[in-house]
Queue: 2 jobs
Job 1
Amino acid sequence: MEITRVETFALERELDERFANAQKWRDSRSYCLVRVTTADGTTGWGECWGPIAGNREIVEEIVAPWLVGRDVRDVERIHDDLREKLRMGFHTCDPSGVVSAVDTALWDALGKARGESVARLLGARRRDDVRAYATGGFFRDVDGFEEQCDLITDEARAHVDAGFDALKMKVGFARFFPWGPDEDVELVRRVRDAVGDDVTLFVDANWAYDVATAERVGRALADADVRFFEEPVPPQQLDAYERLTASLDVPVAGGECWAYADEFGRVLDRGAVDYVQPDVTSAGGPTSMRRIAAAAADAGVQTHPHVFGTGVALAASLQVLATVPGTPLLEFDRTPNPIRDELVTDPVTNDGDTVAVPDGPGLGVTVDEDVLAEFSR
Ligand code: CA
């Protein structure tokens, strides 16, 4: 199964309406995808986390010439060799999104060649469907606090009406709005009132706080029966995570900005979070996701993968989710995103609070070449 070609595809689509989390406004959604082709014409798809610039050049100029001629069946060995090669070149700026996309593409190609899903190849398809929570509640581009709250509570109710019994919302107004942690907490209370006590609520701060503010907000979130407090502080501040996890009643979650089993191992060894959230497009692809989820399970920590990409990332995440020990939840991004919804010919949809795991070969989805061309820039 010799690899004969490695290509990148830069996709972008402007959004009709921009939205923000605590750190950035999003005016568009853009992605760098990777396609690997073997000598017999089998293809596999993967997706890089992060900007197109950088990911695309590294894949085309460094990875492609190195990868052509290698054997897809060596997927785990290639994962480790590629990580080592990029670490030598980029030191701590190791582009884990590139490793992730290549690893995902190789698993997809191997599955297609063997007629088996990636979850089957990983040897642990533990479930046919996964519980999903709706991710939304991003900040809108409006000036009034009441209007902001109304838009977000209306959206939360719409997710419940669509069948979800678990939701994740954002906090951290201060960077872009004239409101602070008190308004963050007020927003959570209003969403809790709007959806009722039976809906599971998660809150994501996207590193909005210092540790003292996170302590104060976290205590209020526990009062609102929030079930995890995601990324309260910046990902490099493991001392702060450890302190918050020890002191707060609300469970602390994090991991979308961490990569590979060794980095997650350091987090787990310190007991720095209650839940880990690796992303298949940035943590090192299915190879690393399996290792991270296994290490977390050994430490008694549930893995709830982070998902915020195209139909390729969503499909890869579902394959991984099928294999994760325990009771993992799918993060089901409900923000408007035509690239997520239209790129694959058999898009992933929810049936109430449940999403089925495809069992077709590879990632179990097919990229629509016409749609690919339409979104390519
Ligand atoms: Ca997040």
Job 2
Amino acid sequence: MPDTTPRIGVLGLQGDVPEHFQALEQAGAEPVLVKTAAALESVDGLIVPGGESTTVGMLLERFELMEPLRRRVADGMPLFGTCTGLILMAKEIEGSRQPRIGCMDIAVRRNAYGRQVDSFETELAAPALGEEPVRAVFIRAPQVTRADPGVEILAETEAGPVLVRQGHLLGAAFHPELTPDARIHRLFVRMVKQP
Ligand code: GLN
């Protein structure tokens, strides 16, 4: 893609849309709200934000976005999933047959930290993003319980990988849109510019 401003969609069925818009602007992209197949066709990459993965999966099917989205991803469109987005990208969701995009070679366990630690924040080392650690906000987060060869682990905790990349696919178990640090969005913008 030439050095123009990429148009990056944020799936707007549920979840943190304004926060992703802000982070994308900070990272030098033009954010686009995606709620229809026509809007999906118009973007160079897509973010699937946090929410409730059963609801978002069901809405993707109801609005007839699931198949077009799978097709675009299969054709190489970069996709970035945060929390629910990561769950929907996983080929395997432990103990669940819920609708999913199912494009990344990982297994996840939903709500893996239990009720006692519904949400928490931590600092993560992520050498691919630079020396400065990443402040990560986890909210009813999934755990990545398996990452097949070919999946790059960009950051992890003692509970496993939390920031993963497989080619044009990027997934975070946490919410990078909730902190002012836009490095992960910048990485995604780079992936969109040079798929
Ligand atoms: N617990 C949610 C789910 O299973 C994900 C939470 C989130 O996106 N913050 O879909």
